[in-house]
Amino acid sequence: MFQLYKKRDFSQFISDTISFFKIEGKNYFKSYFTINGGLLLILVVLISLFVKIFFEGMFSAIQNNENPNFFVEQMFSNLGLFIGLGFLMFFAIILVSVINYTFPVIYLKILEEGKTPTTKEIIDRLKLKAGRSILFFIISIFVLIPVFMILFFITFLLIMVIIGFPLLFILIPAVSSWIAQSYYHYINTNSGYFDALFKGYEIIGKKFWPIIGSTAIMYVIVQIILTLITFIPYIFGLMTMFTNPDLNETNTQETFGFIMIFVTVLMAISILFNYTLQNLILINQGIIYYSIKEADENISVNNEIESIGSNEE
Predict the structure, then answer these.
(1) Three-state DSSP class for 163?
(2) N or C: which end of the chain has fewer CB within 10 A?
């Protein structure tokens, strides 16, 4: 079983994240896709339908050159469908994101208790924590997003004087880690929202540079993997367009049909792998959370002492 409570430095934050998936990866992703896989597919289907309607409207507008407002009219004629799909997409994104963010927190909590996480137990705990999870996300929309928008706006202004670039590379992992640490504390305890934010800030302050550095490295790893995964179908699509004579004709139905399929497939792959690979970052944040907790409370040492005492009895 993976050792959660352990004092770690920068390199161990990263290496132990990889070790976690070597030890727990099979069971982890089996439960993850059982719980979240169906919802991810529904989200992909909804987005695919949205893209299909958009491209069909654009293709029809190109064919009707005499009416420059045809595309807008076409969109308004499908306004009800667009609003319905938009609402379903928004709901699906929120649901998938909440599960995606909460799943690793619960998985590590079960490991902390010395048990092997099962799909049933994870689902039961997800249901139990659903209210708190949704509340955290709703409050964050009104509290954190405005603050972060101001911070990022100031940082982008500072880019003009060079100093903004290094600040941006620090700010993104810092904000991400702060939210993650706050959420871990919020879900694992009965703390209120603002108490959790303060605790998250406190955790980051304990080992600021190792935490920010490891978080940044995990983001880089995820982005490299995502780029490689999406690059393959992208190159395949370009090669098909350049080598197929039928697709080289402008304003043909075949061309737009191919583009629609190509964009849909690329988007589906991107969504599926983006959500899946977020687990690398979130588990990394969990390892940081339990490492700082170990440094503060010496939990593993206390458990060993209690174990020795119980054995002597």
Answers:
(1) coil
(2) C
